[in-house]
Design goal:
Strand order of the largest sheet: 1-2
CATH architecture: Up-down Bundle
Strand content: under 5%
Largest sheet: 2 strands, antiparallel
CATH superfamily: Rhodopsin 7-helix transmembrane proteins
Number of strands: 2
Helix content: over 70%
CATH topology: Rhopdopsin 7-helix transmembrane proteins
Number of domains: 1
Length: 313
């Protein structure tokens, strides 16, 4: 099937397999999950912006994580809950491309942001006397600019390579649009795209993992050598939360991307892991950082008390 006008093509996402009895409970659950994710992430964003005590490199870098999480959740949940209640899994080709772009921006953004946060913790714990000289406002702006510039550059190139092809199929093999599933709709030679995808995995996943392994090895070494138990406990607590968030995203993303390249991997497992990337990090990130980071936790409490007090008045 040769589709010359791809913009007019309607694609079919993988069925959810819901019976009529579960349609509205699933719709309610999906909607409440999305609203909870947005509320928690907006609460973290607002707390960091509102509290001057949190205007530090660590929290300014953290400020970017809820933005990325909300992009991913918004790319996935609204389309999902609408398709649940309408029982219609059709999506137009342009909408599919936009969803894929935003979802990949979210995943790549989170890995880059978490890598930058790992570097920040490394400098703070291993080079405390040089911290202010290294993490200057100017360098912080450069790091944040590089995060989003690299992110958008990779994604624009990825989807530009995909846009060269005409579609010959219409069935998306996943529950949402992404580059691997869109590439499976093409019947032409996609070797360039596959090579770029592998390079993308090695550069992003491998580079991010190398940064985190090195920084945390140095942090662990410093924590073991330090004689101050309170400083050691605080460092391990902060870095432990960060490592949990990072590993959840890294493992799920890597396994999902590799499973698209291995034919005998269970489609159900691939879809489950793919959805978990879009549900668990946006859901857990604000909870983990809000509860485990003392300064942020205090700021959130003050902000909530202030708003509750103003409502009572």
């Amino acid at each position: 099937m040769d589709m010359n006008s791809s913009s007019l093509v309607m694609l079919t996402l993988e069925t959810l397999g819901l019976s009529n009895a579960y349609v509205y409970p699933a719709f309610l659950f999906g909607t409440l999950t999305y609203l909870f994710i947005m509320f928690c992430n907006l609460l973290v964003l607002t707390s960091i912006a509102w509290s001057k005590k949190l205007h530090k490199p660590m929290f300014i870098l953290l400020f970017n994580l809820p933005i990325s999480d909300m992009v991913g959740a918004t790319a996935f949940f609204p389309q999902l809950v609408i398709s649940i209640v309408s029982q219609n899994r059709l999506i137009s080709h342009p909408e599919c491309i936009i969803q894929a772009f935003l979802i990949h921006v979210y995943g790549t953004g989170n890995l880059l942001i978490l890598s930058a946060m790992a570097y920040d913790r490394y400098v703070a714990i291993c080079c405390p006397l040089r911290y202010n000289a290294i993490m200057t406002p100017h360098n912080l702006v450069r790091i944040i600019f590089l995060i989003w510039f690299i992110n958008f550059s990779i994604m624009v190139t990825l989807l530009s390579l995909l846009a060269r092809f005409k579609l010959c199929r219409t069935n998306i093999v996943d529950l949402y649009c992404n580059n691997p599933s869109l590439l499976k709709l093409v019947c032409e030679d996609t070797r360039v795209n596959n090579y770029y995808g592998l390079l993308f995995i090695v550069f992003l996943q491998g580079g991010s993992l190398s940064i985190v392994i090195y920084t945390y090895a140095q942090i662990l070494r410093t924590c073991v050598m330090t004689n101050e138990s309170d400083a050691r406990r605080k460092a391990i607590q902060t870095c432990g939360s960060h490592l949990i968030v990072y590993l959840i995203l890294q493992i799920n993303t890597l396994v999902t991307l590799i499973s698209h390249r291995i034919g005998n991997v269970s489609p159900f497992l691939r879809r489950a892991l793919g959805v978990s990337i879009l549900v668990f990090p946006p859901f857990l990130d604000p909870i983990i950082y809000g509860l485990k980071t003392k300064e942020l936790k205090q700021s959130i409490k003050k902000l909530l008390k202030r708003n509750v007090g103003s409502l009572e008045l």
